[in-house]
């Protein structure tokens, strides 16, 4: 087993004395070690104030996205055996830094949701006593395919436009519009979607660099969805 | 001091908390949700296999209804549940699925015509009727008579949580993220809100509210290996206990899930077995039919977990670097099925084990999974001892699961409880006793008290290391308060946990500041976790019987005569070293289904003196009502009336495809 040499970004923006810096930690690798396990060891033995975010530690909740040797990914399901012995960890850029590896994706995602209104716009509240409205089984599967996004923020970090345009909704936002557009329960029409996404902060801001598609940990079909929504929005207006 | 007032304060942004908030907000009450993490990251998201609701749309759900779901739930609980609550739950579950369907959950649907399934390791053909096409489908789960578990592939919790969280955004409900409630504000009789710590700045804020709802999930993280998210450390229960007024219940009822992967302890869904997956031993032999010939791999969770442990004790486990395990074989289901209906399982196997489950068996063993115990409430989610305090979801013990919960019943409980408790909380706030003159002095006193406690930790010259103590607690729970329990180990556990609690007050932290400081968080949570752990161990030691997930090797029989009761925990004396335990009897005379044999293994029961009388009474009443041609609703109403307790909006009968 190797000794892993971690190089980790440290900074607490709320502490006036804090200066952004990189700090080094050495960890003995063990079989099946993930970055979740390694970071906890570092926090236990070497850096008790190291800030990072894990919740499910199973690749399901999207909390722990960070730059792993420069590439956005979920730390909890990254096995160290797939990495070289030098491991550099940085917080996701494009999100507000809380401290060290912890960023405020929650605040960003809520703002995006409010702006794009990422919920089913109902005609009527469902009557829960009645038999539910039918849906084609294949359509339910297609909706779920797009619904699998975990709002981890990797796609936003990997996005060229998001670096230049602070208000760009990112692939996460465009994919959500694609998801609701597919859903017959949502009463909105293309003209309504155009209102929230038909500008340079929306689907027309995308420069088709498609870093989003390459890094999505859920392998969502972002490339296809962005192209599709752009076409629909361009045609619809 | 920062002070925020709201009508309803919901602590916890998972499914139970968010659904409660939607309910109270719709009733016109200002509602704030506090969450440790962005709400879509809550542990609800990790529910995979599905939620139980007796829709009866698919052919294997034919004949299902609330009565069957209720019976399965009561049996599953080993008769430890509150049958009124279980009835309310079974009645609401179809409404919850249908409401979520309207709000946007992409439930998997029934496809008309022929389909191939795997049942008992054989391929079978099912034919779905035309009339069911496009309605919500269901899969098989453990301990159920029908295929009742509604699902979205194996990302059911994710789909539900995203829909409900987005619904909360649509309703304009503020969620204050990265906030932790560290104490409840109360005057000994009335809860007035909570002292809340901002996990980013370290600031303490007083949130005052007419009603405070604890929906913080379970306490699995007191165990060293758990399927729970790392935030499930029982803090909501601990702050209720620390009021000295509110009580917790049934802490010793802890569920172990049969199939968590080894060594990471990550869950792979019961849907694997529901869809036809098998358990195999070191010889590749399918052993469950030998132990449970009828239900096999789909016996109740507590039963399967114990059978697996028994089989490993016989030397049939696979010995590995991280201890023994058994195999879960889903290769029999075929790649197409796995890639459509078990895709999270596939991702987990690829990422954490480096295997393709369509080709290789998955190493699994029973692992801590669910907390049946929680903040004791009545069916309205209200604490009987501290007015204005409510609780729902896994954090609560209202008590629908008794000593073992069925797979698919917890994610269902979250939304059902949210629907109900949201209404009851709103009723309370609109009633005369719900009115509250907030005392700023009281809020200030509590904030100051908490500030002092934190300062004391930061200033402490204590030499105890919080990490060492916590690891020892986790180990004690694993080794001595696990799947099988005995008096000797439990006594040792109680003794050691008491000592660990003493030591936890002498911890020191290396970074001596009150702002965002992960080590400080670790240190102040530690005594609270130990109080819960101690409760679990003491409850388990005193309960000299085996019921559901609580299995005493020295007391293998289920003893209804002495133990058909709920354990209550309180901590009224702050200087005490242990909680006070007392017991609340379940009333056999009011049960719709009197205690009976659960149907697993051999019948080891000591009967309650009222059981025989009640059984006769129920049989005679049912016969008479059937003679009078009463339908099932009318009969049920006579045996154990519950509908009058429901909010009026939820009293209607559930429509079904096949039920006239």
Explain what the structure shows.
The complex is a heterodimer of chains A (237) and B (660). Chain A is an alpha+beta fold and 237 residues long. Chain A has helices at 35-45, 105-116, 137-147, 154-157, 160-164, 170-182, 190-197, 211-215, 222-236; strands spanning 3-10, 21-28, 65-68, 71-74, 86-90, 97-99, 102-103. A 5-stranded mixed β-sheet of chain A has the order 2-1-5-3-4. In chain A, helix 3 (137-147) packs antiparallel against helix 6 (170-182) and helix 6 (170-182) packs across helix 9. The longest helix of chain A is centred in the last third of the chain and has 15 residues, at 222-236. In chain B, helix 1 runs parallel beside helix 4 (156-170). Chain B is globular, with a radius of gyration of 24 Å. The model of chain B has no long low-confidence stretch (mean pLDDT 96). The chains are: A alpha+beta (237), B alpha/beta (660). Chains A and B meet through helix 2 and helix 3 of A and helix 3, helix 4 and helix 10 of B.
């Amino acid at each position: 087993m190797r000794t892993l040499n971690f190089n980790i970004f440290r900074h607490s923006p709320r502490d006036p004395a804090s200066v952004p810096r990189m700090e080094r930690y050495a960890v003995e690798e063990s079989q099946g070690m993930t970055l979740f396990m390694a970071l906890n060891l570092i926090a236990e033995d070497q850096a008790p104030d190291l800030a990072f975010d894990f919740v499910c530690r199973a690749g399901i909740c999207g909390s722990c996205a960070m730059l792993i040797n420069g590439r956005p990914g979920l730390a909890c399901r990254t096995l160290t055996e797939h990495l070289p012995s030098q491991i550099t960890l940085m917080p996701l850029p494009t999100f507000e830094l809380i401290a060290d590896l912890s960023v405020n994706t929650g605040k960003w995602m809520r703002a995006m949701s409010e702006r794009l209104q990422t919920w089913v716009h109902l005609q009527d509240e469902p009557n829960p006593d009645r038999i539910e409205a039918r849906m084609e089984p294949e359509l339910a599967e297609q909706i779920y395919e797009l619904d699998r996004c975990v709002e981890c923020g990797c796609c936003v970090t990997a996005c060229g436009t998001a670096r230049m345009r602070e208000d760009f909704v990112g692939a996460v936002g465009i994919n959500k519009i694609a998801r609701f557009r597919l859903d017959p329960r949502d009463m909105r029409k293309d003209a309504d979607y155009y209102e929230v996404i038909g500008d340079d902060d929306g689907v027309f801001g995308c420069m088709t660099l498609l870093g989003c598609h390459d890094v999505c940990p859920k392998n969502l079909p972002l490339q296809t969805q962005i192209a599709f929504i752009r076409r629909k929005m361009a045609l619809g207006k | 001091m920062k002070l925020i007032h709201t009508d309803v304060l919901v602590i916890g942004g998972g499914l139970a908390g968010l659904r409660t908030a939607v309910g109270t907000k719709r009733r016109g009450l200002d509602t704030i949700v506090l969450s440790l993490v962005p709400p879509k990251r809550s542990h609800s998201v990790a529910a995979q296999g599905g939620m139980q609701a007796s829709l009866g749309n698919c052919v294997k759900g034919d004949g299902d209804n609330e009565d069957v779901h209720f019976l399965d739930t009561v049996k599953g609980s080993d008769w430890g549940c509150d049958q009124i609550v279980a009835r309310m739950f079974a009645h609401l579950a179809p409404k919850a699925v249908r409401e979520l369907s309207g709000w946007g959950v992409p439930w998997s649907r029934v496809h008309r015509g022929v389909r191939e399934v795997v049942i008992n390791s054989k391929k079978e053909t099912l034919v779905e009727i035309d009339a069911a096409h496009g309605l919500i489908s269901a899969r098989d789960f453990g301990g159920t008579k029908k295929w009742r578990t509604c699902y979205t592939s194996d990302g059911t919790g994710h789909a539900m949580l995203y829909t409900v969280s987005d619904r909360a955004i649509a309703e304009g409900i503020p969620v204050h993220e990265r906030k932790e409630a560290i104490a409840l504000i109360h005057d000994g009789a009335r809860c007035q809100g909570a002292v809340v710590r901002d996990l980013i700045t370290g600031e303490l804020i007083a949130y005052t509210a007419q009603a405070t709802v604890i929906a913080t999930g379970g306490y699995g993280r007191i165990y060293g290996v758990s399927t729970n998210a790392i935030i499930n450390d029982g803090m909501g229960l601990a702050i209720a206990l620390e009021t000295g007024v509110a009580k917790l219940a049934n802490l010793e009822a802890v569920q172990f899930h049969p199939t968590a992967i080894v060594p990471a302890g990550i869950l792979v869904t019961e849907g694997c077995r529901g869809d036809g997956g098998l358990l195999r031993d070191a010889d590749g032999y399918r052993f469950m039919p030998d132990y449970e010939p009828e239900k096999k791999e789909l016996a109740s969770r507590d039963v399967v977990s114990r059978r697996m442990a028994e089989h490993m004790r016989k030397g049939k486990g696979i010995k590995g670097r991280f201890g023994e395990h058994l195999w879960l074989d889903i290769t029999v289901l075929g790649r197409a099925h796995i890639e459509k209906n078990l895709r999270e399982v596939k991702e987990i196997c690829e990422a954490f084990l480096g295997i393709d489950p369509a080709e290789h068996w998955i190493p699994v063993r029973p692992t801590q999974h669910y907390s049946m115990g929680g903040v004791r409430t009545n069916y309205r989610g209200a604490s009987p001892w501290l007015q204005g305090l409510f609780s729902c979801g896994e954090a609560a013990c209202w008590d629908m699961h008794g000593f073992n919960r069925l797979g698919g019943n917890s994610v269902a409980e979250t939304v059902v409880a949210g629907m109900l408790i949201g209404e009851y909380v709103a009723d309370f706030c609109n009633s005369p006793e719900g009115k509250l003159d907030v005392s700023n002095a009281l809020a200030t006193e509590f904030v100051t008290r908490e500030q002092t406690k934190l300062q004391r930790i930061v200033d402490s010259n204590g030499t105890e290391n919080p990490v060492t103590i916590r690891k020892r607690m986790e180990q004690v729970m694993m080794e001595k308060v696990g799947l099988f329990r005995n008096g000797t180990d439990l006594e040792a556990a109680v003794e050691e946990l008491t000592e660990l609690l003493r030591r936890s007050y002498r911890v020191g932290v290396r970074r001596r500041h009150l702002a965002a400081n992960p080590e400080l968080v670790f240190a102040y949570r530690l005594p609270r976790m130990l109080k819960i752990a101690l409760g679990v161990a003491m409850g388990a030691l005193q309960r000299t019987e085996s019921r559901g997930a609580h299995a005493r090797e020295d007391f293998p029989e289920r003893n209804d005569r002495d133990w058909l009761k709920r354990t209550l925990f309180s901590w009224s004396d702050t200087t005490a070293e242990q909680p006070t335990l007392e017991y609340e009897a379940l009333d056999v005379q009011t049960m719709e289904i009197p205690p009976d044999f659960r149907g697993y293994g051999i019948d080891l029961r000591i009967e309650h003196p009222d059981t025989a009388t009640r059984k006769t009474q129920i049989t005679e009443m049912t016969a008479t009502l059937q003679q009078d041609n009463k339908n099932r609703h009318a009969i049920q109403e006579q045996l154990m009336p519950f509908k009058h307790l429901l909010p009026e909006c939820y009293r209607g009968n559930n429509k079904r495809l096949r039920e006239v």
